[in-house]
């Protein structure tokens, strides 16, 4: 776990410090809500915290991993720990009743009892109200850990009785690694990780054919803008306007276009920069070589201006024609 603890500290430095301080100062509360997107380490950190609270030989606010309690927690055999998953869509009232009954049985060992509710936002009103009574008056030394990806969906009365532990979004390099572990190419992972920090959303974007087409269309446009305005306008009418019909689609395409020019700026400053489109690196170096920072700054401004015009419901064809002319200027000397 030593290595694992270090990984968790990289993933969630603030949360780990928070929980280790709670343990060190002996201020363990009776209920916590671990709130964060999928992939932010909620389950792993809940397990770390449980081990820390029950470990027989903790050292420097880290569980020993070798004592009887740590080993039983690792294998899921500790009688004082109960975990609850939704039964189908919801966590039902009978599940909560059974949990409470299990928590109050004398067959449990002496010492702290801990229960973990996975997807706590999926309690229906009756199960939430039943849990609320137990949260207000737990019998003995009991700690609850509620895990959620949707904090606002938890009853305010339950929120107010729990300490809110907010998990930060996944750092981009870790998200990149997770996406590649799912079999997604480094190039696609680099692009989707710029658009979202949520692992599930990133995975579905990476597998979405429409998104792959959008990415391709945007890159084709960047390449043609270099050549001449007529060719760029041809791509706008033949590909861009036919592919992106909805406002949201154009907005996303303009974002993807903005990232391409940001890449070029980054590569001009440092050829080893990490890019949104690593598969385009050679192209970006070539463009960077034949342009200036002032020119790139104007092009970024032109894309941002087009985005504003989109919000003002400007005619899409006119918007794109104007953008092509603005992006084109200054390339004549290449």
UniProtKB/TrEMBL annotation:
The keyword Protein transport does not apply. GO terms for molecular function: DNA-directed DNA polymerase activity. Its EC number is 2.7.7.7. It comes from the Bacteria. Pfam families: DNA_pol3_delta2, DNApol3-delta_C. It catalyses: DNA(n) + a 2'-deoxyribonucleoside 5'-triphosphate = DNA(n+1) + diphosphate. This is DNA polymerase III subunit delta'. Keywords: DNA replication, DNA-directed DNA polymerase, Nucleotidyltransferase, Transferase. InterPro entries: DNA_pol_HolB, DNA_pol_III_delta_C, DNA_Rep/Repair_Clamp_Loader, P-loop_NTPase. PANTHER family: DNA POLYMERASE III SUBUNIT DELTA, REPLICATION FACTOR C / DNA POLYMERASE III GAMMA-TAU SUBUNIT. It comes from Ureibacillus aquaedulcis. Residues 241-328 form the DNA polymerase III delta subunit C-terminal domain.
């Amino acid at each position: 776990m030593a290595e694992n603890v270090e990984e968790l500290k990289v993933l969630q430095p603030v949360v780990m410090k928070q929980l280790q301080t709670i343990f060190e100062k002996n201020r363990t509360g009776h209920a916590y809500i671990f709130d964060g997107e999928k992939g932010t380490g909620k389950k792993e950190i809940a397990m770390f915290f449980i081990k820390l609270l029950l470990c027989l030989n903790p050292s420097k606010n880290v569980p020993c991993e070798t004592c009887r309690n740590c080993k039983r927690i690792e294998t899921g055999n500790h009688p004082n720990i109960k975990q609850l998953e939704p039964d189908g869509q919801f966590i039902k009232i009978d599940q909560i009743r059974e949990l409470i009954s299990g928590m109050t049985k004398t067959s449990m060992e002496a010492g702290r009892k801990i229960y973990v509710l996975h997807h706590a936002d999926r309690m229906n009103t009756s199960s939430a109200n039943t849990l609320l009574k137990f949260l207000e008056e737990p019998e003995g030394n009991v700690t609850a850990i509620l895990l959620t990806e949707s904090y606002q969906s938890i009853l305010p009365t339950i929120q107010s009785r729990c300490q809110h532990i907010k998990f930060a979004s996944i750092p981009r390099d870790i998200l990149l690694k997770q996406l590649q572990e799912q079999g997604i190419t480094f190039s696609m992972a680099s692009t989707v990780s710029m658009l979202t920090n949520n692992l599930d959303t990133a995975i579905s974007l990476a597998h979405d054919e429409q998104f792959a087409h959008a990415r391709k269309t945007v890159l084709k446009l960047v390449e043609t803008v270099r050549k001449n305005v007529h060719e760029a306008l041809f791509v706008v009418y033949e590909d861009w306007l036919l592919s992106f019909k909805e406002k949201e689609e154009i907005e996303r395409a303009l974002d993807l276009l903005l990232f391409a020019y940001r890449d070029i700026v980054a590569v001009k400053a440092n050829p080893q920069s990490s890019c949104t489109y690593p598969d385009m690196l050679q192209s970006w170096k070539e463009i960077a070589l034949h342009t200036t920072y002032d020119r790139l700054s104007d092009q970024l401004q032109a894309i941002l201006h087009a985005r504003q015009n989109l919000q003002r419901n400007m005619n899409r064809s006119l918007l794109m024609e104007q953008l092509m002319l603005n992006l084109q200027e200054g390339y004549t000397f290449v």
